[in-house]
Amino acid sequence: MRVDIGNALAATARPGVSADALDRLDDRVAAAHDRIADGMADSEFGYAALNLPETADPAAVEAAVEPLADADTLLTVGIGGSALGAATLVDALGDGLDYHALDNVDPAHVRDLLADLDLADTVVHVVSRSGTTAETLANFLVVRDAMADAGVDWTERTLVTTGVEGNLRDLADDHGLPVLDAPEGVPGRFSALSTVALPAAALAGVDLDELLAGAAAGRDALSGSLYDCPAYAYGAVAYALDVRGASVNAMLPYAEGLETFAEWFAQLWAESLGKDGLGQTPARALGATDQHSQLQLYRAGPRDKLVTMVRPESRPDCAIPETDLDGLDYLAGGDLGGLLDAEFEATEASLAESGVPSVRVELPAVDAHSLGRLLFDIEAACVLAGELYGVETFTQPAVEWGKDAARGLLRGEADLPEKDVLVVE
Amino acid sequence: MRVDIGNALAATARPGVSADALDRLDDRVAAAHDRIADGMADSEFGYAALNLPETADPAAVEAAVEPLADADTLLTVGIGGSALGAATLVDALGDGLDYHALDNVDPAHVRDLLADLDLADTVVHVVSRSGTTAETLANFLVVRDAMADAGVDWTERTLVTTGVEGNLRDLADDHGLPVLDAPEGVPGRFSALSTVALPAAALAGVDLDELLAGAAAGRDALSGSLYDCPAYAYGAVAYALDVRGASVNAMLPYAEGLETFAEWFAQLWAESLGKDGLGQTPARALGATDQHSQLQLYRAGPRDKLVTMVRPESRPDCAIPETDLDGLDYLAGGDLGGLLDAEFEATEASLAESGVPSVRVELPAVDAHSLGRLLFDIEAACVLAGELYGVETFTQPAVEWGKDAARGLLRGEADLPEKDVLVVE
């Protein structure tokens, strides 16, 4: 992975990081790297995620999905970190598998989706570490019922990833379902390279060995200086820009296959760093489409944005046919990829021209090795940023209040505090 | 539409709007409304969008699509405002039509999509007011070629929306294609209720009369006080919170069908208001899914957010089956919609508990009338906010630099300014 932070420096951008400030920050990166390396060596909670390139067991995943590999459709039942990793891998790399993530409890959507699927030809992958996630378990109960109604033996089509104890483990044991252990010490949002997401990738034809080899290359590249490590260069600059006023990080991949990656990034960044009044707000975007939506704001709005531009260095061919339409001579004989790359470079230059900081991230291609590297490096960037902010990167305490309140409401046990109301209708 | 701004007031939230400040702001709303009403009366550029409930001609749209209505698949070829309105309507209300928006020029995606479609059974709707939008025209040339390769007469399957002059108009005239006029004086991002998006909705089985009746109800509700007009209540509070520090507006619908609406909102808000260093940054979200992704940041991160929570008051049924799984007694016998609503209310209360401002927007249902009302009211809110900021709501000058630079690159005529480079790899 190649990270170019030139357009995030103070010579180009406001806010921007000066060369001296970057040198001073590099001392803190060295200390943070020591902390991270210790955490990895001891497989501490959270830091263990960065060991997945070695600890993941692709053969076990492949063995678990092999009896189900004849299905044309996969339904992941999970939410948040239990769904986004799989969707990211399949949307970027999947080859022909009809994939759906059931990651919300909207009755209209669930009904429509189940009515559309051929359940006899569908694998259901249920993912919940605790085995008690309300949305996931409710959806699973509905799906199981729908399979029974369709005359499908759900025990033949269901795969489970969960912790070593709990509801889902008991259920899997009782019915002899294939079950994979959720990785120890790895929060959901850091679990894309584990049993949480790899089964979906395997069913979608992704080469797990290549994916993990890419991640291992990221691990091997970790080092005590941001100038030697692309992951840390990205994490350090994002942090430095945030504390200088770039409180929004717009993730703008120029590849449709990476649209879900931007969503995965948004979860990782928001839930890991959004603590103690700190944390950069991720904005999900897609190039070139969002040039016609968000770029006006990025260039001319408040000076509170870092734009992260991601692209593959190679793309498949798709020639633009010749035409006699007026004013389109500049397109003719070209290729869609050439047009997309010209827009990438022009947009990057247009941000620099107006002094908006951007970082360029380049991958060899949208392939398994590059994606493994990208996910690992962005995770490492996030862990580094967490060290620099001094927050608890691997927990999400602020969501517990709402979970408890929702359970209380459903049990009829608890009332919510009275709400201030000012209705206009 | 019902807008509850109680949780955005200073009694609950920081930042929050005090009751006195809201009263003072209402004088400015009255003046802005006069300006908007004048613009509508004179069909001025941009303001003309708010006349679409009356000026749109659903019968003409239905007549244009009628000969194509046997197709199972629709492909919109457009970008930005020429695609998002159609996607918003079809994703919320469409019934069974296989819908795709070709709104990017990624060669991998375009190739895969065209390989998957049965082009003989596909309607192509090409949308570009100017007839020269690079991405749209390049994609159209590729699609036309693919149809020819598949032995399909593209002139039998193509519908055009464009201006009264230009490339696409000439093309349509030369080949006798059905063609609809892009609405006069209506910027793309305000064109969801026009010939730009209504053809897709009609093909997807949406009741255009109901949709426009909902919008007309929004128009009829415009008045000189935010206390009497939900659209203005929303626009005024969003503006007031932004200038008090809520520089991010997280659009969080609790309905899968409104996921694309959040994207449409993000375009409308960003491109209309992101000017002169001003403008609130939209963040696209989805409830309940993003409780497991963004909520940690919203509650515990920087105090720079307004959370806009949208939900329908009625949902279809989808019962949660009984279960003997441990700890899930509170779900049993309930309904997915009840779970989703409990999460909505618990999340809203959890934001209030931590002092984060939110606004609640409620629709009777996700149906044509309600969606027409929602789109109209959010457009009116945006126009009002533009008046309060004092920006040029209806233009997007900051994107021109990049468009020119991309054309220059592709023509081989212009070099970009030299880039600052600091590469880590």
From TrEMBL, chains A, B:
It comes from Halobacterium jilantaiense. The active site is at 271 (proton donor), 292, 403. Pathway: Carbohydrate degradation; glycolysis; D-glyceraldehyde 3-phosphate and glycerone phosphate from D-glucose: step 2/4; Carbohydrate biosynthesis; gluconeogenesis. InterPro entries: G6P_Isomerase, Phosphoglucose_isomerase_CS, SIS_dom, SIS_dom_sf, SIS_PGI_1, SIS_PGI_2. Gene3D superfamilies: Glucose-6-phosphate isomerase like protein, domain 1. Residues 64-211 form the SIS domain. Its main location: cytoplasm. Belongs to the GPI family. This is Probable glucose-6-phosphate isomerase. Keywords: Cytoplasm, Gluconeogenesis, Glycolysis, Isomerase. GO terms for molecular function: carbohydrate derivative binding; glucose-6-phosphate isomerase activity; monosaccharide binding. Catalyzes the reversible isomerization of glucose-6-phosphate to fructose-6-phosphate. SUPFAM superfamilies: SIS domain. It is found in: Cytoplasm. It catalyses: alpha-D-glucose 6-phosphate = beta-D-fructose 6-phosphate. GO terms for cellular component: cytosol. Its EC number is 5.3.1.9. GO terms for biological process: gluconeogenesis; glucose 6-phosphate metabolic process; glycolytic process. PANTHER family: GLUCOSE-6-PHOSPHATE ISOMERASE (PTHR11469).
